[in-house]
Amino acid sequence: MRNLRFLSPEGSVGKGKKPWSDPLIEMMFSWSVADVFNDKLFQDKVVEIPKSFVSIETYLNSFVYPLIEEVRADLLSGFQSITQAPIVRVLSLQAVKNEENSYLAVLDYSSYKPTNGDVVFLSNGRPSQASNLLSNGCSDVNLALFIGGGYERQRKMKVSNKLGIEKLKEKNKGASFIYAVYLINVTTYKRIWKALKSQLNQLVFQLLPNPNHSSVSGASALLDTDSFDLRNVELKEKLMQFKLNNSQIDAILNCTKSSKLDSKHRIDLIWGPPGTGKTKTVSYLLWVLQTKKCRTLACAPTNTAVIELASRFLSLAKDDCSLHLGNVVVFGNETRMKIDEDLKDIFLKFRVEKLQKCLQPISGWRSCIKEMIDFFEHCLSWYQMYQLDPNMKNPKGSMPCHGALLSLQDFVKSWFVQIQEEVTRNLKILGQHLPRPLISIENLRDINEVCDLLGGFLHGLTMQLDVQVVEEAFKEDNAGNMLCKARSDCLKLLRKLLLTLNVLVNGNDIEAMCLQHASLIFCTTSTSSILGNVKQIKAIEYVVIDEAAQLKECESLIALQLPGVCHAVLIGDECQLPAMVRSKISGNAKFGRSLFERLSQLGCKKHLLNIQYRMHPSISYFPNSSFYDKQIKDGPNVLDKKHEHHYLPGDMYGAYSFINIVGGQESSFGHSLENFVEVAVVNQIIKNLHEESLRMKQKISVGVICPYKGQVQAIQNKMGEYDVSVDFTVKVSTVDGFQGSEEDVIILTTVRSNTYGSIGFVSNRNRTNVALTRARHCLWILGNGSTLSDSKSIWMELVLDAKARGFFFDANEDMSLSQAIIASYIEQGSIDALLPIHALSISQNEMEESAQKDESDHAAITSGAIKSFIEDGSTEDK
């Protein structure tokens, strides 16, 4: 295999080969088309990643080939989707001097704007299908990696095959353009590779634990309150005031009991099942770390999780005047993060833009303050000059005074307002956005005081004043004049700020300055790699990883390998969805296993958050029994009668029910599955809910969870849109798309319906757990009870439980559902299949009338606008 000659198992460059700055990318560039399409290329190299390791070397190397195989599988997936992939026209390609295989490309951004790390396929046009690459006998692949920007539409790229690119250029000379078709983004893969090859952080040695290793400890150990000092006792009392339960408080206190003076490296685990207030707990954990002045990185696998955590912390921090938001930074891709107005205050890009203007030498804060000092000292002489020349401009060189000659008071007010606005804005930016090490508490007090004084001076100028009073305000010897006193106090503070507030930073270094001095940084785990490149950055002491069970262990090393990290807190739930892995070979080798899960399997203690506040007790009962060994208690809010909602009449539509659909037919939908009968039932239930919400004028959020993308598409197509007069939202998505979210009502369609009990990946316990724990008030499960029971999986247990608790119903018990099922068979032309299944005494004419009525009703409500959307996120396996 020609690709292996570039890389030894230890990751070094092979003999006789010129060193390459990125061995992983060089290996990818060396693959032929056949290599990319060969699922067995690394089969003999990928071995199962063990639970424990004898050395750091074997630990890090255990991820190398599974990572390489995952890159190959991801690249293959990109080729297989090439007919729908984003594409950009390359207007010109010019080789970069003295840089091997580097080109500057001028692109037409009309349809796709590449970002750094994007790998594209260069060709004369979009291939009609991926298999053509093999059938045409193509050996080398013309790949390019975007590695930087240029002017306007110019981008820098590294190519895999310079000869192939030159042939493409020659072939297209004077004719058509070259096209770049998106395949994958390799940024995270490169960062993982770097973490696997980096100089080791001491914390990594704690990742090879004996199950009883003292440095990997869950917060579940009982607190020795006698050893706690008074501050910790006070902290516990304060946390209790925030309405945290005992398990949440114990988790926070145990994870923060080792102070920054404690040099011992350790890892803590917090286990947060669905609805147990995990994000709330983490936000208060971060708050405690800030009060202890511990420099902290808070990260998560996705932008969505990072923004949720940052938003929760921000709402908490705004209620605590002791926390300085200039110490808090969120950074990453603004578009992907969907930064709202509230988060802009702590978003790095926004902060840099603000500070750049504020720190300008000519028009920045120092210039404004000097201008205000000049105004206070020379205002009377300026007015005398103005009387001689009414067309004179203000100190900013603009806005000449026109019309009748201004009185002294009007002159003072008009000029003061312009300068005061600039001074106030600049000083508030400094006070809000500078990190605490660069601005003292005394500076902040002075800024607030001078802004208040300037505001008070302006207010005084709005009153009707004698000319003498205004003149005396600008004289040094009249302490009895309130304006004079305000002016004098302002001058003292402004001069003091010029002397004491020394922010000496080049405009280009502001971003680095913010990261160097921030005490709390939010970003994705992958993006945290950038922190390792910031010069003179202060060491990160704590790494807090939220949703840690959704993160590949090797990806968590990106954050854990940062210099100075001595304490990590992992928060997650290994009973929910793990990280996605495209390669079956790497998946079977446990490449998708998280560090949280592995440490749990080794017996490391975890602190369990043991009270859930989301689900009605009837909903939480089965997941609690099946996945959490009945360790989770129902919170007082879900036990309250107010949490019980009856959105539709009948026992079938209580808090929890399994609605048995006999005879539903699963069918292929491309590479996915759908069940048209369950689609019809889902559509009818949503229609009923919509009508009821209009009648009762109540807000309802509905989620429809499908294990297959084909079912998602079928439901979306059938459902259409609803004209609403109250808030009625519907979200249709895969199980992956619902992880971390919740709705009032969840309708779960299981799709599988056959006589042999085959349910494919629907049987996955983690996926089942996520699907069953998204509902607040009602969870209605649709499925073929016989198929699910015959699967001998978790679904057999669920069906038996529903029957035992009296929550098992037949869809035909509801006339509207029965009619919807009949109509779906007629629509599919399968009336003959319907008769043996449904013992309904309905004639052919009655069935057709029912179908016509259903279609008429559906058409009447598909004209409006409902917030319905699809989120594709699942990897499917029939």
**Rg, nearest Å:** 33 Å
- State the major sheet: 7 strands, parallel
Number of spatially distinct domains: 4
Helix percentage: 40-55%
Residue runs with pLDDT of under 50 for 5 or more positions: 1-20, 218-228, 839-848, 855-878
Q: State the end-to-end distance.
A: 32 Å
CATH architecture of the largest domain: 3-Layer(aba) Sandwich
Strand content: 5-15%
What can you see in these coordinates?
The chain has 878 residues and is an alpha/beta fold. The protein folds into four domains: 2-195, no CATH class; 198-357 and 529-608, Rossmann fold (3-Layer(aba) Sandwich), CATH 3.40.50; 365-500, no CATH class; 644-871, 3-Layer(aba) Sandwich (Rossmann fold), CATH 3.40.50.300. Helix content is 42%, strand content 15%. It has 34 helices and 24 strands. It is globular.
Describe the structure concisely.
By secondary structure, the chain is of the alpha/beta class.
